[in-house]
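note to self: dont lose this again. the chain is below, predicted strucutre after it. 357 aa total, dont forget to put it in the shared folder this time
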Amino acid sequence: MIWIEHAFQHVFGIDTRLSSETADAVYDQIAACLAQPAFRPRALFERFGIEALSTTESALDDLRWHKMIRDSDWNGNVVTTYRPDTVVDPEFDGFANNIERLGDITGEDATTWTGYLAAHRKRRAFFKTFGATASDHGHATARTEDLPQDVAARLFDKALRGQHNAEDADRFRGHMLTEMARMSLDDGLVLQIHAGSARNHSDDVMARFGRDKGYDIPTQTDYVAALKPLLNAVGGEAGLTIIVFTLDETAFSRELAPLAGVYPALKLGPPWWFHDSAEGMRRFRETVTETAGFYNTVGFNDDTRAFCSIPARHDVARRVDCAYLATLVATGRLAEDEAAQVAYDLTYRLAKQAYRL
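---
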């Protein structure tokens, strides 16, 4: 409720508690606000003080809406993010057709392994022309692989012909994370990994409405073993940034914080999805700081589709972090002037630095 109450009060000026008795009046007030020019998306963008907003598009997207923004007279900084799931996941519907489209878009023979990699490089370069500073990868697990090129090529060929099994698909996805990391060394895109969600858990909802319509459940994720191939390949590269988000809170202190503490490329993303809450944010700081410190995290960036909740999410994150820092100061573990600097960094500087904005 914290997001909606904050948005009601600070965005729409509603000071009435939402209930069955007040719902109609609240609805009418929101509807009246939304009819005003001051509540159009670009006006709210300015009002919220947003410096940069990033969307996420498929590798096959033509980015027409970003072109429309760029060609307009508005100067808001809205950038894209390269999301290649549709063309790296052999279990994605229409995978082979998606690869053909990838080839058509790029002028490469994407049905060959070398042409497929070249097509990715071209698409990443295209996304960069629309401000992209990162790629994003949503995988059920954090599995990575660093396979010999001939082995990867054979897996790719099996996937194109529909002859892969579940293990082949997971292995191929894992190898492509490492390939994407190597491309990041060349083009500078930050690599984001969102792992630990068992998506489409309900077979009934999946059958009735298709994929990604809900019933997504956090799962246990083994980061120590899963990330080892990727980190052994590129984790020592200080010029590379890999940001890991997780839905498996048990992995923070046991696995992710120690890994981020030793591999220069690895950073911890803020609490995500099920844990994007005051309690989740506090648990995150308490479990990772002792091992990873503050500066192996990327501060706070929100991941929301609810535009009017953006101020609320940042406000809560700042309050939680400052409360945690105040505890450290009060218990003699951090000097007050240092806490003020850390608060600024967690709020602002680290996110801009991590995403190269």
